[in-house]
Amino acid sequence: MATSSVASPLCTWLVAACMSVACDSEHSRNPSLFQSSKRVSRWARRRKVMSKCISGSSQFNRSLISSFYGSSIQSLMSSCIAFEPCDDYYSSKGLSSLGLFGDNGFSLLFGSKNGTINRRQRRMNRATHSGEAMAVALEPAKEVTTMKKPFTKQRRVVVTGLGVVTPLGHDLDVFYNNLLEGVSGISEIETFDCAQYPTRIAGEIKSFSTDGWCGVLIGSAMGGMKVFYDAIEALRISYRKMNPFCVPFATTNMGSAILAMDLGWMGPNYSISTACATSNFCILNAANHIIRGEADVMLCGGSDAAIIPIGLGGFVACRALSQRNSDPTKASRPWDINRDGFVMGEGAGVLLLEELEHAKKRGANIYAEFLGGSFSCDAYHMTEPHPDGAGVILCIEKALAQSGVSREDVNYINAHATSTPAGDLKEYQALLHCFGKNRELRVNSTKSMIGHLLGAAGGVEAVATVQAIRTGWVHPNINLENPDAGVDTKVLVGAKKERLDIKAALSNSFGFGGHNSSILFAPYK
């Protein structure tokens, strides 16, 4: 087991929790241990206490774990990660043999055997042993079932409204018809001079009017970046030139807040920001409010507009963007062997979710039923996917179990697929792991035509998923000219739209920080 598994806030908290349970008795037996000289640093005293407390017998270590699992902390931990001592623990002589805290106890937390460990060593440990480190946390994933739930009187959630603002149009039908025809919304950036940038293309909103619109959308990954950027430019002259509303308008919650003020909605109202997974988090949480009876109607989705100098420059700096400037419409190419990064996009996608009986009572047009979904975290790297796709697989399996949908029933997936070398392949492998035996499965990526809309991606792609259910047509994957060596195109939609009688549809969104989200829709019956 990798010692790097300790190097996280969770494990630091775990150590503190264990110490609070286990060291009281040690304190009573040997109070002098905790009364070190003032000249000794706090960290040195803590190291001394730790080494003393973990040097006991196997009986001590077993009692430490049992007291941890017998306390109220258990419920908190089980709600965050599925964690349980494995079989190796029960046949071991203590925590160190489990490997969770390293070969010599808490060696990584306090340094290596010679007292130091550098950043490169930690990264090598993580890369070498990350799969092993995840094994303890993910072991119970084997127990996740995808059996259909028994019938209950749970409140059902349906989709009764859709809205988009995208590089392919702001009208729902125009947007989806352009997708079906394989039209690309990627072009050269026009909003500012980016001649000095290595990337000069994006999926921009070319024209948009707020006439007849509320003008406010829900979640956001980047917040009011444009407002904040303008404020910084104004500050170069004087603080007196700054917009007095620059701070509140820069926060991610203000969209939902202003929407409530505009409509007078006094129900649940807040913002979620989980990078590129933002919209799916908002949609699933909105549905849960309806299921719990806290609301009958919820607007949910996401919005982002980061195609400005600081936004473009930031993604260029982390080397995430395509540089196919000479051929913008060919730049976003999920699963193609010549993909060289994602293309920034901007826009918004919003769904109106409603409790079924409430929708029927008012005679609403029901587009689809929302079945459920789930979240997980890779707990691995800030931008890179987990090497074995463990987090994505866990997320999908939990989503199926929560929704009561069998693997065989999912025959359409709107993938996250951003056109990045690592991300596309890892998601594809996870999808095959979960649905590889489903011969009817069709997979596509909306990002091949509109780019990556960041926090709005999940919202727009959820709209595309519902539109596929409504129309019976799934849009093509454009620019997939030379599939990656590890990709079997049999499950991918081709260069033309395809007819599909959708039983259940899955939409994935993953975000920086390892945030994974999967939500499911089906025709309303």
Automatic annotation (TrEMBL):
<dbReference type="InterPro" id="IPR014031">
    <property type="entry name" value="Ketoacyl_synth_C"/>
</dbReference>
<comment type="similarity">
    <text>Belongs to the thiolase-like superfamily. Beta-ketoacyl-ACP synthases family.</text>
</comment>
<dbReference type="InterPro" id="IPR020841">
    <property type="entry name" value="PKS_Beta-ketoAc_synthase_dom"/>
</dbReference>
<dbReference type="InterPro" id="IPR018201">
    <property type="entry name" value="Ketoacyl_synth_AS"/>
</dbReference>
<feature type="signal peptide">
    <location>
        <begin position="1"/>
        <end position="25"/>
    </location>
</feature>
<dbReference type="InterPro" id="IPR016039">
    <property type="entry name" value="Thiolase-like"/>
</dbReference>
<dbReference type="GO" id="GO:0006633">
    <property type="term" value="P:fatty acid biosynthetic process"/>
</dbReference>
<dbReference type="GO" id="GO:0004315">
    <property type="term" value="F:3-oxoacyl-[acyl-carrier-protein] synthase activity"/>
</dbReference>
<dbReference type="InterPro" id="IPR014030">
    <property type="entry name" value="Ketoacyl_synth_N"/>
</dbReference>
<dbReference type="Pfam" id="PF00109">
    <property type="entry name" value="ketoacyl-synt"/>
</dbReference>
<keyword id="KW-0808">Transferase</keyword>
<feature type="domain" description="Ketosynthase family 3 (KS3)">
    <location>
        <begin position="154"/>
        <end position="523"/>
    </location>
</feature>
<dbReference type="GO" id="GO:0005739">
    <property type="term" value="C:mitochondrion"/>
</dbReference>
<protein>
    <recommendedName>
        <fullName>beta-ketoacyl-[acyl-carrier-protein] synthase I</fullName>
        <ecNumber>2.3.1.41</ecNumber>
    </recommendedName>
</protein>
<dbReference type="InterPro" id="IPR000794">
    <property type="entry name" value="Beta-ketoacyl_synthase"/>
</dbReference>
<dbReference type="Pfam" id="PF02801">
    <property type="entry name" value="Ketoacyl-synt_C"/>
</dbReference>
<keyword id="KW-0732">Signal</keyword>
<dbReference type="GO" id="GO:0009570">
    <property type="term" value="C:chloroplast stroma"/>
</dbReference>
